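Task 17 of the worksheet. Students: predict the tertiary structure of the chain below and write it out as structure tokens. Keep your answer in the requested format; marks are given for formatting as well as content.
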Amino acid sequence: MTDLASEYDVIVVGTGPGGEGAAMQAVKHGKSVAVVERDPAVGGSCTHKGTIPSKALRYAIFQMTEVNNNVLFREHGLTAHFMIPDLRRRAKSVIEAQVKMRTAFYDRNDIPIVRGVARFIDPHTIEAVQADGSHAELRGKYIVLATGSRPYRPAGIDFGHPRIFDSDTVLNLDLNVKSITIVGAGVIGCEYASMFRNLEIKVNLINNRDRLLDFLDEEIVDALSYHLRERGVIIRHREETERIEATDDGVILHLKSGKQLKTDALLWAAGRTGNTDGLGLEEIGVKPDQRGNIPVNQHMQTVVPHIYAAGDVIGPPALASAAYNQGRYAASHLLCVLAEANGELAIEGDCGPVPSLDIPTGIYTSPEISSLGKTERELTEGKIPYEVGHAHFKSIARAQITGQTTGMLKLLFHRETMEILGIHCFGSNASEIIHIGQAIMAQPKPHNTLMYFINTTFNYPTMAEAYRVAALNGYNRLF
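Model answer:
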């Protein structure tokens, strides 16, 4: 790490995906950069509390269930049964590897990591306060806020109770839990419902809406609902929480409908809040919304033009993949502004394009869901003439070989131009499969059509072959 200077071209607050993207983009173009991080290790919630540990845990659970469901292992009396603490050790090793790698990024690029909680003193000055009271002041021509988010904790719920968790603390669950209630059936709630049920834990999934994940294609949502119920998850729609009663041996959820659900533990997974409290934003005229999210324009600028924000702290889509691109674009934009202020011409490549709004969803239920583009409902409401092509995984040779036959790939395309309008996938490795279609959708006309999948030779047997099957299925509906 380099010696700490007092003034930088760019100060980045937070070292999650958004902060890393901004810092690396700015330093690679010759600007002086410092980052402020409140935690002992870099990576943000993505690395330490959210994406990485939860997906590592999910994969460990998947490996265990694969052994237990494999006929070859069962015939030889081989089974695997682990508690969550045992499975979590896999996540710890992944986190350590991620931290080591990401710390090296900052070291190699001579970016100082200033430890402490960030707070604005004035629009160009950040104070980083450490736990022992020591502090450092940094001035920056431009500042990028990438402070992330945390689980929303409503008043009246005792999150200090050993049986009540949110998505940040549930990974520390050490109890011998046989049942759990999950309040909130969004992405996080559905992912944990799948994980806990795969551990043979009884699950109540409480949803305050009419259906699960209503931003997804209805056919995909119906498939997820069916699969969760088939696995034994109890889904309760249109329910509102009245109060939560914690006892020594469990948690009782009182619903406004009059129902009372007692389970060994409760996971509150109803929304997130931007990490903006304590930043001193009121001192510089930046006002977060009621959920702590910072409003920004299309260039990731706040109402104070030299202060940018990126990642979960600006709200949806709140994805690590999107956050990195947002941070990178924020730095690209300020590089152009900085060059103009200095009377210079921006270096070619400095001003990157605005990040695409076509961001694939990646939902790590079991099986996975990934989606991109329009849904059938949106196309119907828009009066766009479309057709559908399906490939059910049970008919794909690779899925038959691996035993992962649950799921399908669904292509939506324009009946007249054949343009791909939407891709929806439910099944094993859906979050990987989606990127083949994403690459084609991003091509200029007329290269973004169904005919690409019909005329392209895919390796056999692969899951990618599902694109050819779905394309031919849809093409045959036209005649």
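Marker's comment: The mean pLDDT is 92. The longest helix spans residues 84-108.
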